[in-house]
Amino acid sequence: MRAVLIVVLYLILATSSYKTYDGYKMIKVTIGSEKDFLMILDLESKNLLAIFAESRSGNVDVLIEPQHTAQCKEFFKSKGLSYEVMADDVGVEVAKEKRRLLRKSSGATGEFSYDTYHRYDVMSDRLATLAAKHQTVAEIVDLGTSYEGRTIKAIRMTADISSDESDDKPMIWLDGGIHAREWVSPATMMYIIDSILCEQETDKSDKMGELLAKFQIFVAPCINPDGYEFSHEEDRFWRKNRQPSGCKNNKLNWYGGCFSKLCYGVDNNRNWSVDWGRT
Question: Which of 11, 121, 138, 196 sits between 20 and 30 A of 172, alpha carbons compared?
């Protein structure tokens, strides 16, 4: 009985600061032109909805707060845009997922499974374990430090990794976790790493050996660790990083601070000009 009470208390504490999304709706809107899409973008700019899946022709998935639902539905009807409610209460689905994650154990240090979404530290420990186990073909590369002080890690994989010749091989670069809420992205990168090192897809060991003989492969599973952790701890649908990005509506008070609140987050893959870094 005491163990049950401890588990219940843990669940309450773990979810108390988590944004609930109670009453939010996920709606799929059918659009047929660029003009239709721009109208949806305009609603997003007015904070009436948030676009989740973008498309210039076809469907657009949008998340709508309870207080804006009626207004958005009326807008869709007035513009002849058909829509379908995909989730009537997003908060219910978020709570279900949170409970599933809390019930799952991450296992021993360095172990990794694909029946749940793991935290950033678990992924980092897995990379270290793989590099130690496959020393002739794998090594850890530190890419830098995030705003909140987390080390952003990648793993380099190639045959005869300690040789000078390995540095001259053509490079393949893969990264995931740019958008914090897209948890499947880091998990996919981890599966690719496990497959290349034959921890998964063991029947393809010969092909993986040929690949490593020809290329050096860098994989960074999660290059937005701050946002990823925030999406686990505070807000399931957080997308950006956690670096302060200015005051809301750019309004400052008399003392040089923010008039209402400080905004956080930069979208990591929309933070440079077109053709940035071209060589």
Answer: 121
In sequence order, what DSSP letters do the residues of 163-186 get, joined into one string?
SGGGGGS-EEEEE--SSTT-THHH
Burial 119-149 (b: 16+ CB within 10 A, else e): bbebbbbbbebbbeebeebbbeeeeeebeee
Q: How many CA atoms lie within 13 A of 177 on its CB side?
A: 28
Structure letter (DSSP) for residue 155:
E
**Would you give per-residue pLDDT tens digits along the chain (279 residues)?**
554 444 444 444 444 578 999 999 999 999 988 899 999 999 999 999 999 987 766 899 999 999 999 999 999 999 999 999 999 999 999 999 999 988 887 778 888 999 999 999 999 999 999 999 999 999 999 999 999 999 999 999 999 999 999 999 999 999 999 999 999 999 999 999 999 999 999 999 999 999 999 999 999 999 999 999 999 999 999 999 999 887 766 666 655 667 566 788 888 887 767 776 665
CB atoms closer than 10 angstroms to residue 238: 23
CA-CA distance, 97 to 185, in Å (whole number)? Answer: 17
**Residues 153, 198: contact at Cβ < 8 Å?**
no
